Amino acid sequence: MLAGELGPGVKRAMEIIVALGKIYEAQDLVLVQSVQVAGVSYKNLGDAGLEFLREWAGQGAQVRVPTTLNPAGMDLAHWRELGIAEEFARKQMAVIEAFKAMGIAPSCSCTPYLTGNLPAFGQHIAWSESSAVSFANSVLGARTNREGGPSALAAAVTGRTARYGLHLDEKRRATHIIKVRCPVTSEADFGALGYLVGRRVEDGVPYFKGLEDRGRGRLKALGAAMAASGAVALYHVEGVTPEARTGAIVAAEAETVVIDGLDEGYAALNSPIDAIDWVSIGCPHASLNEIEEVARWLEGRRVKAELWITTAREIKGQAQQQGLVELIETAGGRVVADTCLVVAPIEGLGLRSMATNSAKAAFYAPTHSGLEVRFGKLEQCLEAAVTGRWPGS
Ligand code: F3S
To answer: How far is the CA of 373 from the centre of ligand 1 (A)?
Structure first.
């Protein structure tokens, strides 16, 4: 591959893998079973990124393992209804075409594990998108570093990655023990906790004690928040996540952190605003259960603010079959596929304030999309969608 015998597209990919291997002093390469590629939105790529992808595709680069794509900058089917500019849409579709030319279907979701790209325990993979990386490593027990868009794509084209970091047993040991001494129940609570822990441990590996098992949706929120406020790519929860059951995974020198309240996390992620013109649910992308929860809450109600539930196109299809999309649309909300509030060009849509139950969304929205944010539980956000005001303000 490196000698160029399989063509210039493969040679370029292997050059990236080898360069990373040298930087991180990897002893060899490891075969990967699946890849998740981030860097799909034209908002982030710009013309330079689009050209890079086109050129690589033009050199004959083709993926050789199952590969999925992160969210794009718009709903690929309904972008006009969202108010996305024609020029942006044209460029976004050109990005998608470049990925398709490399053999990647436009799955466009940050929760590929909900739609068929579900790695097994111990499998080596090469994923980008920090929340997906965290979920794959921690909840599924697969093994991936936090890849960037180009390095993930290079792994997809070569079918390999350099064996370093979280591919190795010793790097998967916990660096911090997190003792949780307060109730953590809702998705927002898990997000607030993740925000606090991510800030504290940065790129370490936390091991949670005292955290009750409240299902994978909560773990999705926890991991996404830690990956945003810190750079956590792997965590363990005692009695819950797969590697935490095998024991001996806490490093001897691990530091202990006590969390006895979430108020500081909620305060850091909230602006003191009352009027809400947009409510965004589904960061990371919503599961079918989460869409159902929203649809049931909205039955018989009508929203005043713009309401988006962002999800994978496949999950939207399932929600449609169950009549959930219709329920949400009847209430005036939208189920938006392929995109999300951070990678869509929200700044051009005239929205200024947002409510969300996602700590990751609340963390990024002010800087990435110029929004003022209220962060709280799902019911508070839906209440805000109905009244146009943050509850209690
Ligand atoms: Fe996914 Fe976008 Fe949130 S990529 S994790 S919905 S910021």
So the answer is: 16
Please tell me if the CB atom of residue 283 comes closer than 6 angstroms to any atom of ligand 1.
Answer: yes
How confident is the chain (393 residues) per 10-residue block, as mean pLDDT?
98 98 98 98 97 98 98 98 96 98 97 97 97 98 97 98 97 96 98 98 96 97 98 96 83 95 98 96 98 98 98 98 98 98 90 96 93 97 98 85
Cross-strand pairs, 308:
280, 334
Q: Is the separation of the CB atoms in 142 and 12 below 8 Å?
A: no
> 392, 322, 315, 314: which is closest to 355 by C-alpha?
392
Can you say how many angstroms the Cα of residue 281 is from the centroid of all Cα atoms in its chain? 13
Give the residue, by CA position, lying nearest to ligand 1 atom 7: 342
Q: Please write down the long-range contacts of 98-102, taking CB distance under 8 Å and 24 or more positions apart.
A: 98/50, 98/53, 98/54, 98/56, 98/57, 99/37, 99/40, 99/53, 99/57, 99/69, 101/57, 101/58, 102/56, 102/57, 102/61, 102/62, 102/63, 102/153, 102/156, 102/157
Tell me the CA–centroid distance for residue 356 and ligand 1, in Å. Answer: 12
CA 326 to the chain's CA centroid? 26
Collapsed DSSP state (helix, strand, coil) of residue 40: coil
Q: From the CB of 194, is ligand 1 less than 6 Å away? A: no
Please tell me whether residue 272 adopts helix, strand or coil conformation.
Answer: coil
CA distance 229 to 194: 8
Ligand 1, atom 3: nearest CA belongs to which residue? Answer: 283
Confidence (pLDDT) at 393: 72
Assess whether the C-beta atom of 343 lies below 6 angstroms from ligand 1.
yes
Q: How far is the CA of 285 from the centre of ligand 1 (A)?
A: 6
